[in-house]
Fold:
Amino acid sequence: MRLFFAIIVCKLLRLIGKLVGKGSSLPGKYALKLCPDALGRVKLPEYIIAVTGSNGKTSTVEMIAAILRRAGKTVVYNQEGSNQIEGVTTLILCNSTLGGKMRGDVLLLESDERYARLSFRFFHPTHFVITNLYRDQLTRNGHPEWVYNAIAPAIHPDTTLVLNADDPLVSCFARDHGRVKWFGLEKCSISTADHRGMYHDGARCPVCGGKMDYDYYHYEHIGAYTCPDCGHRRRTPDFAVTDLDLAAGRLTIDGETEIALAFRSIYNVYNILAAWSVCSLAGVEKGLMASVINNYILKNGRMVQFTLGGRRGTLLTSKHENSVAYDTNLAYIRAAGTPCAVLVIVDAISRKYFTGETSWLWDIDFNQLNCQSVRQVVLCGKYVNDLALRFDFTDIPPEKIARFDTVAQAAEALRDSGEEELYVVTCFSDRDKLLSLVQLDQ
Ligand SMILES: [Zn+2]
Structure:
């Protein structure tokens, strides 16, 4: 009976919330007050797929949904990214009958690595995909080990873990767990013998603390590792990218399926592979998966590709006042490794309210742009002086940094100044100021 009322209250509040444009966590919050174990009482679908990790959750989830839907399954997923327990509750109860049965064939959840434990107290995923765990994004949470400890209790013995074999931290989750499937990228053109990047999380074994050996690195701590002391090592993937040509935008899965990449980034490679692996485990046929993923352009609007003069450009949307989103995008640029210019725009801080508060700029690790591949950094917008001051405190050589008052001036300068790739980092409120000046890809 309590569940019945919780579902009704949740649906009603959601309806009202939609009318007044409010978020999706409040209905779940009240439903949980009425029925704290609501998630344990609802009858859930056959497949419950959760995706977590530091990077790539949203894109991976979107591709999984696209594939499963093409395969004829009804997929319920948290598209709005409300991935804490209140949001998950809203999602599940609003998609349930009053009798307490969730509609749909698949419940698909993007799960925040910090809150997974709370969401999965009353039910557990049938498949749990863990993409990667990064240090650069995790300084706020302490060390990656902290995140490991946060996720581990959320893992049920019946859950099939779908793990990135190339990440020594992610692979720790397989310890003492029976059901594990691995995905990974084999040695390829981007692999290097030496480590690149700022943080060397792979240097120490996450299991015993010993010094780790690497056959090769793909990027950062991702690669083929072995710990000589305790034997913690990269496992042979069940699903593998066996060939990768990032420059040509092409990869091959399991030696037979060739996929064209709409976004030529190593992150996209892993996201595709993760989606492929879990959909394959859910019984989707290879040809169908390939037809969906081939040249797949993400719809979440965080990445837009364009041309500006002789430059190919990628716009990476962040949220102002959210340093994690920025750090992720900066890590993306750094990992891409191709010679590039980076344009950072801070013109309006919020769409919703006026503020001139820019202290959040100091939480962003702009120092990630201090690398060989980033040839030029261009700052612009109304807050260009705040940005410039922030960049004074990075190690980026001042001669690499240019500044302009307006987006139009910056775009004009970049149009004429070279042919390297261009990455643009800005937020939803400022991105159209640039996109109106460039030629968008179809
Ligand atoms: Zn070890």
Remarks:
- The chain has two domains: 43-78+104-293, 303-440.
- DSSP finds 13 helices and 18 strands in the chain.
- The pocket of zinc ion is lined by residues 205, 207-208, 210, 227, 229-230, 232 (CB under 6 Å).
- Residues 136-142 have pLDDT under 50 and may be disordered.
